[in-house]
Inverse folding.
């Protein structure tokens, strides 16, 4: 049962999604999804496996065809492909820390700014690297020599090269040890302070709630919960949303 | 014993030089098949086109065959871009690559071969240049210029393309498109545009390879077919996506073919060559330096 929370943002939201449906061929995964993200907000998108979180990000960034309305920074993104979406300032970092393993860290970042004029590109690549000093030190090493956590940082840094207004991260913690996860989330916190809005899809509920201002829960293709992360009783309500009923063992709060 | 050693040395050296030539003819497919996953089985037909262009340049205009090929490089590049565009619109965009795309290129192969036969006939054609006859004398060995020049041409082509791929922005983009197209789309790059450039380059190599071919041997339209198997065997043996691997495979094949030719007769050469391919793949399925 959807629970709405008061939207703290007084101005026009940065990202507005309404009535979005998407799927893979005949399989409909998302039904009538709506969400908003304000400028500079960090929003977590939680949900059980198979709920459609990755599909939702793909539909928003234009990798998948969709029906419904997506409005970003005041512009209608109807029919926009991933290239147009990126140029508008909405960057999607896919799951699985996929980087170009045969290229160096620096080349990976240069490619992320495909099409930008050279001087601007080098400056923005340096800016992106400044968020991740650990991989800045390895800028000439081939990406295949980086650890999983470093590759994930590189993938996020690639997203930053375009100076996005909104960065969508799909399970950045997947496959990483807890220490590395904290490092990636710390980098994310620095991004927030710098004013970038973030949409974080995560399986680690506690860490996601700690990093975000608001949370949406997606289950079986629809939004079932929307709340601020400082609201009371959130873990219980999430559990309810995930399973649709009360479960005997409560989530850690 | 002395004679055999002499024959052996000769065969190995000829094989080495032949391998360099094989690298020249295979580099185009190393790009289109090894990196872009496009089974351009028609590549030998365009190598032959390059040979005939060199032939015309040489007999009609009196210019050096390699120079003639270099002059027509832009035309081959544009032709490659056009061919990719057709392939993309007809097959790749609809995710129809594998079988129908292959038959598309087969069709082009036959059309090209028949067109060349209609225009030039089936007589063997060759070129005149100072390096078509004569040997380079290096103390104990004599290197035929006829083999040495194509070898050098092949090495220059491979080195040049390797530098291009690793030092230029577009070169890196081509390496990236070979690895992860979806990631590139999310970086506002158009994979189709990058592949088009790479395919154009692949065709451009055919021009130079054609010049090398007509230097090594007289050509007529149907000899392209002899090269289809060799080229793909070399690319697979070397490991798709690796230029150094392809060169090693080309040289290995050249030496094996040359040795077999010298000691067992020329007709055994292709069989032994493919035997080497099968054995290598059984031991190392991804090829010599495959990733």
């Amino acid at each position: 049962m959807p629970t709405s929370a008061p939207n703290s943002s007084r101005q026009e939201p940065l990202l507005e999604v309404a009535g979005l449906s998407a799927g893979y061929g005949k399989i409909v995964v998302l039904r009538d999804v709506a969400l908003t993200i304000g400028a500079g907000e960090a929003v977590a998108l939680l949900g059980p496996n198979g709920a459609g979180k990755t599909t939702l990000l793909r539909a928003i960034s234009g990798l998948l065809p969709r029906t419904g309305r997506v409005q970003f920074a005041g512009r209608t993104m109807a029919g926009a492909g991933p290239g147009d979406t990126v140029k508008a300032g909405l960057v999607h970092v896919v799951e699985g820390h996929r980087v170009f393993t045969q290229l160096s860290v620096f080349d990976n970042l240069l490619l992320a700014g495909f099409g930008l004029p050279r001087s601007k590109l080098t400056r923005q690549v340096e800016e992106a690297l400044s968020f991740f000093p650990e991989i800045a030190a390895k800028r000439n090493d081939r990406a295949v020599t980086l650890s999983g956590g470093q590759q994930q940082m590189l993938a996020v840094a690639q997203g930053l090269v375009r100076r996005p207004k909104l960065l969508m991260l799909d399970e950045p913690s997947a496959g990483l040890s807890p220490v590395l996860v904290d490092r990636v989330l710390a980098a994310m916190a620095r991004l927030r302070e710098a004013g970038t809005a973030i949409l974080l899809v995560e399986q680690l509920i506690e860490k996601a709630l700690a990093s975000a201002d608001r949370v949406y829960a997606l289950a079986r293709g629809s939004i079932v919960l929307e709340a601020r992360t400082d609201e009371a009783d959130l873990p219980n309500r999430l559990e309810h949303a995930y399973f649709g009923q009360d479960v005997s063992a409560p989530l850690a709060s | 014993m002395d004679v055999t050693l002499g024959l052996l040395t000769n065969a190995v050296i000829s094989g080495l030089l032949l391998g360099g030539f094989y690298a020249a003819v295979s580099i185009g497919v190393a790009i289109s098949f090894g990196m872009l996953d496009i089974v351009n089985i028609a590549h030998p037909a365009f190598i032959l086109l390059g040979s005939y262009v060199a032939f015309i340049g040489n007999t009609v205009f009196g210019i050096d065959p390699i120079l003639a090929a270099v002059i027509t490089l832009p035309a081959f590049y544009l032709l490659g871009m056009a061919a990719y565009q057709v392939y993309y619109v007809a097959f790749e965009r609809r995710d129809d690559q594998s079988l129908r795309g292959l038959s598309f290129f087969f069709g082009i192969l036959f059309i090209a071969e028949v067109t060349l036969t209609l225009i030039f006939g089936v007589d063997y054609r060759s070129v005149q240049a100072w390096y078509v006859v004569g040997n380079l004398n290096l103390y104990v060995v004599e290197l035929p210029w006829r083999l040495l020049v194509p070898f050098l041409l092949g090495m220059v082509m491979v080195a040049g393309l390797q530098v291009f791929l690793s030092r230029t922005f577009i070169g890196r983009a081509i390496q990236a498109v070979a690895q992860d197209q979806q990631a590139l789309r999310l970086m506002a790059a158009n994979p189709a545009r990058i592949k088009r450039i790479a395919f154009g380059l692949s065709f451009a190599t055919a021009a130079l390879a054609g010049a090398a071919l007509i230097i090594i041997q007289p050509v007529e339209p149907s000899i392209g077919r002899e090269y289809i198997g060799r080229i793909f065997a070399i690319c697979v043996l070397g490991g798709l996506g690796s230029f150094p691997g392809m060169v090693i495979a080309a040289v290995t094949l050249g030496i094996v073919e040359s040795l077999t030719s010298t000691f067992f007769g020329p007709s055994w050469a292709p069989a032994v060559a493919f035997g080497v391919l099968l054995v290598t793949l059984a031991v190392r399925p991804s090829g010599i330096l495959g990733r």
About this structure: Chain A touches chain B through 27 residues (CB under 8 Å). Chain A has a mean pLDDT of 87.
